[in-house]
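We read letters as residues; the fold follows as C-alpha cells. Both lines appear below.
***
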Amino acid sequence: MSLEKEINFMKNFSHCISTSESVLMEGALGERLKREYHLSFDAQLAMAALIYSSEGRRALKNLWQEYIHIARKYNLPFLATTPTRRANKERVEASCFTKAVIGDNVSLLRSIQQEAQIEMYVGGLMGCKGDAYTGEGALNEKEARDFHTWQAGLFQAANVDFLYAGIMPVLSEAIGMAQAMSDMGIPYIISFTIQKDGRLIDGTTIDKAISTIDASVDNRPVCYMANCVHPVIVHAALSQEFNKTSLVRNRFYGIQANTSPLSYAELDDAADLKCSDPTLLAAEMFRLKEDNALRIFGGCCGTDSRHMEAIARLL
C-alpha cells in the first residue's frame, strides 16, 4: 500500500469514528468457533493460528461475512479485528509459528474487506500479557511499552487501519500499551475491563484511566471502549458520579457486549455459555447510546448474528 493510501485509510477511520452516529463492530468469534464449528485453538496463540487450516479460514470467513451482511443491510460502517489478542512476542516465540502470523491474519481479513462492498476497517487486536479478568501478571508502564511494541510494529508493517487493545484490566499496562501504539502513528482504541462500580480491575476509575492515558502519549487514542461486558454493567459504571464527566462522555465511545450481566468472576467459573434474548440485549445497548452517547456497538461472548441484527436494527 502506498504512503498516500495508508494515510487516507487512517484519516478515514478516525473521521468515521468521530462523525458517525452509529458504527457496528463484529460480534463473537471465539465462542462460536468452538461451539458451532467445533474448532480447537492453539495452546499459545489461540484463534490466531486458525488461518493455517482450511476449516479455520472457512469458519472465520463465514462469521465475518455474517456480520458484514448485517452492516450492509442497515448501512452501518463496520469494524473487524484480527483474532490475535494472544499472539504477543512471548507466545509466538513459544509456539511452532513465526511472527508472520500477524501479517497472515491481517491479509485474510483484508481480503474479506476488499470483497465486502461496505465501509469497513481492519483492526489489529492486541491484549494484555496476563489475565484480562483479574489483572494477574499485569506489566508496569515501561515493561508494557517494551513488550507490546513488537506486536504493534508488525501490525504497522501489515498496514492495518487501526489498532485495538482489548479487555485491558490494569492502568499501568494500558498506559504502556497506548504508548507502544502511539509510537506507530496508527489510529488506535483502548478498551478496558470494566466493573459495575465504574472502575477497572485495579480500582482505577474510567475518568482517571482516560485522563492518565491521554496525558501519557504523543498521539491520543481515537476513543476508549469496554469489551466482554454486559451493557447494564457499563451503564452502571458510567452512571457513577466520578465518571459523569465531560471527559468520559467525549472520549468513551463504545462497547463489545457479552450477553450475561454476571460478574467476570462468575462468568469465569461458569460451565455453560450464558446467553440472553437478542431484543433485550439490543434495548440495553440502545440505552447506552441514548444516555451516554456511545456510538460503537459490537458483540462478545454469547452473541451471534441474531444479537447483532437486533442491535443494528435499533441503531
